[in-house]
Design goal:
The complex is a heterodimer. Chain A is of the alpha+beta class. Chain A is built from 15 helices and twelve strands. Chain A folds into two domains: 170 residues, no CATH class; 173 residues, no CATH class. In chain A, helix 2 packs antiparallel against helix 11 and helix 2 packs antiparallel against helix 14. The radius of gyration of chain A is 29 Å and the shape is elongated. The mean pLDDT of chain A is 91. By secondary structure, chain B is α/β, with parallel strands linked by helices. Chain B has a domain of 165 residues: 3-Layer(aba) Sandwich (Rossmann fold). In chain B, 29% of the residues lie in helices and 25% in strands. In chain B, the strands form two sheets. Chain B has a six-stranded mixed beta sheet with strand order 6-7-8-3-9-10, with helices on both faces. In chain B, helix 5 runs parallel beside helix 6. The chains are: A alpha+beta, B alpha/beta. Chains A and B meet through helix 1, helix 12 and helix 15 of A and helix 2 of B. The complex binds adenosine-5'-diphosphate and magnesium ion. The site of magnesium ion has 3 residues of chain B, from helix 1.
Chain lengths: 382, 247
């Protein structure tokens, strides 16, 4: 492109200004990527959830239990393939800051219902035989430096007092990057031995797998109808609906993030729009010369747009690249507090598209001014 | 011969007939040109003089296709430019006119070479052809050794010589100079005028120049005065007396 040198020379005319504008894009796009990652983490429900899974909780609230005796009744409902149950364990490892989710699991059905969390067979078999056994997600194991064979004490808070001891028998990995690798699983039988008589035989919630995702509505209705008007009424939802409701407890995160994101981009638009406007105004006589010697109005618009587009692209790419480097570091820092932070390619692509749009819009107004400016007026003004 | 009474022949290179130019400022109308006629033949070197505000730049801008008259008609080399669309006018300027203004001619972030090359980027010339044209043009103005200098590294006179090189590099039909020496000291003005004279004398260029400096005007082959919206013929110049009486 023979005009590249003109565009480059114009870009480099005020280096500090160029760096500041590129910097604005970089900071904004970095922030965008970070917000998107946090948002993804909270909205992950949909991509983690199995389409063929239902979650059954107590109609009153998730902290109210359901009887274990429901299991066989639910299994009899046509369309239900397998069912498992969990309790929230909620113990503390050394310090409350060391939060990670701990679930009481039913070893018999766990792997059939949640097959995407993989445990090697030998580790799983050792766990099943070991009443004090535990399986831990790879991220949590790494966080505390736990290895297979380690003995780990957890201080209970909900189910009594004192420490319960566990043997780390296995480490699970998620099949997909978005899978949660922070959980800690203990055995239902061990849990039952230790809890007080009044709460024995009560599960926190059920998770079941359907023969076909198409049955979700029918089976949910059948389950809730089955236990209607009992002391433990149920609320059955698809796993994705359940996770979405879970996220809502934290307030409307999505709205907050979209609001902050919008403000960031509007600010960026004002800053770069203003910079481009100043830069074009300073060059009024130069644009007049270009036009006088035969450059078309469209060529002038093209010069201005090319400039703002290049700034947007360089700044945007810098910001997104630094987010690629920084997100894993931040994810480590936030260990366990949030679900896995994953920077998806679609976030990067969306970021780049937004940067290009802001670049085009901020160059458009000054570009049109330069385009419509008349040579004689411009030359008289100076 | 230059004519200002509308009697020029069809063969004149530049022909202006009954030009009116009226500016509207606020509610007020300013009639700058009123029925102006001009005929210039190829190879002539014409100086326009007149007091500040008399419409010299206005006339040059009309002849160069930078602005359109309120009434009347301008024909250059057989093309009537007064009714061209602004897009066609832009292309016409690129092909037919070389501009030299008083100041702000050069793009400060481009070297002398790159500034001179600008008009050629609009043509289909190859990179090598462009280079040779630019080098020739800079040679004509005596700045072959300043090709890679930026405007701020050049003196005012050198800047105007680079501008002349840019104006001639695409071999336009005629050159328009609006106070080309207005910002220069006597010595630099002299150098610039020597080059313009050479362009006319040696390279047979047609040059129309506005100046209010009689010494500069004296180097032209004819001097016209703008007076109440029309052109009147001045004395034919003799180098010693100049165009006396015009301030
Ligand atoms: N774009 C314009 N709008 C309004 N008035 C103008 C404009 N251009 C020139 N004029 C007026 O027209 C007159 C002639 O201007 P100009 O051609 O620049 O004179 P000169 O070059 O002889 O000094 C002046 O009175 C000037 O104020
Ligand atoms: Mg003037």
């Amino acid at each position: 492109m023979k005009f590249a040198r003109i565009i480059l020379a114009n870009l480099l005319r005020k280096k500090v200004r160029l760096l500041l504008t590129i910097g604005s894009f970089a900071v904004a796009l970095f922030l965008f990527a970070f917000l998107a990652v946090v948002n993804d983490a909270f909205q992950r429900g949909a991509d983690v959830a199995g389409a063929d899974r239902l979650v059954i909780i107590n109609r009153t609230s998730i902290i109210n239990p359901l009887p274990l005796s429901y299991r066989d009744k639910i299994l009899r409902i046509p369309g239900v393939k397998v069912i498992t149950h969990n309790n929230w364990f909620g113990a503390v490892y050394k310090d409350e800051k060391n939060f990670f989710p701990q679930f009481v699991i039913d070893p018999e059905n766990q792997r059939q219902v949640i097959p995407e969390l993989l445990v090697p067979d030998d580790q799983w078999n050792a766990f099943v035989k070991d009443r004090q056994g535990a399986i831990v997600g790879a991220r949590t194991a790494e966080r505390f430096g736990w290895k297979i064979g380690d003995r780990v004490p957890l201080m209970v808070t909900i189910w009594g007092t004192g420490n319960w001891e566990f043997n780390i028998d296995g480490i699970y990995h998620g099949k997909r990057p978005q899978d949660d690798e922070t959980q800690f699983w203990l055995q239902w039988d061990y849990f039952q031995e230790h809890v007080s008589a009044g709460i024995k035989g009560q599960v926190g919630w059920y998770v079941l797998r359907l023969d076909s995702p198409d049955d979700a509505v029918r089976v949910s209705k059948a389950i809730d109808a089955e236990f209607a008007n009992s002391p433990f009424e149920t609320k059955t939802e698809t796993e994705s609906a359940f996770l979405a409701n879970w996220v809502k407890q934290f307030g409307n995160i999505k709205f907050l993030i979209i609001t902050i994101g919008t403000i960031v981009f509007l600010t960026l638009l004002l800053v770069t729009g203003n910079t481009m406007a100043i830069s074009v105004r300073e060059r009024t006589p130069e644009f007049a010369v270009f036009k006088a010697i035969g450059y078309s109005d469209r060529a002038v618009l093209f010069f201005v747009l090319a400039e703002s587009l290049i700034i947007a692209l360089i700044g945007g790419i810098l910001g997104l690249l630094s987010s690629v480097v920084a997100v894993p570091v931040l994810a480590k820092g936030l260990n366990g507090l949030l679900p896995a932070l994953v920077l998806s390619p679609s976030t990067l692509v969306l970021g780049l598209i937004l940067a290009i749009l802001v670049g085009l819009i901020s160059g458009m107004l000054p570009g049109l001014t330069a385009m419509h400016m008349r040579v004689v007026t411009a030359l008289r003004r100076v | 011969m230059v004519k200002v009474d509308g009697s020029g022949s069809q063969s004149s290179l530049i022909q202006a007939r009954d030009l009116d130019k009226t500016y509207r400022r606020g509610g007020e109308e300013i009639d700058v040109l009123q029925g102006l006629n001009l005929d210039v033949e190829a190879g002539e070197f014409v100086a326009f003089m007149g007091p500040s505000g008399s419409g010299k730049s206005t006339l040059l801008n009309l002849l160069g296709g930078l602005d359109v008259p309120t009434r009347g008609r301008i024909t250059v080399a057989g093309d009537e430019i007064t009714h061209m669309s602004s897009g066609r006018l832009t292309e016409w300027r690129a092909r037919h006119v070389g501009f030299i203004f008083q100041m702000y001619n050069l793009i400060p972030v481009l070297t002398a070479f790159q500034n001179v090359e600008l008009p050629l980027l609009l043509t289909k010339l190859s990179k090598a052809e462009r280079r040779s044209h630019v080098e020739t043009a800079l040679g004509v103005v005596g700045l072959s050794d300043r090709m890679n200098h930026y405007p701020r590294q050049l003196s005012g006179g050198q800047e105007q010589r680079v501008t002349i090189a840019r104006a001639i590099v695409s071999d336009p039909t005629f050159l328009l100079c609006d106070e080309p020496t207005g910002d220069l000291d006597r010595k630099s003005a002299d150098d610039v005028m020597t080059i313009i004279e050479e362009l006319v004398g040696r390279h047979h260029k047609t040059v129309l120049m506005v100046t209010h400096d009689p010494v500069v005007a004296a180097r032209a082959s004819s001097i016209l005065h703008l007076d109440k919206g029309v052109l009147v013929e001045g004395k034919h110049t003799t180098p010693l007396t100049g165009a006396g009486g015009v301030a």
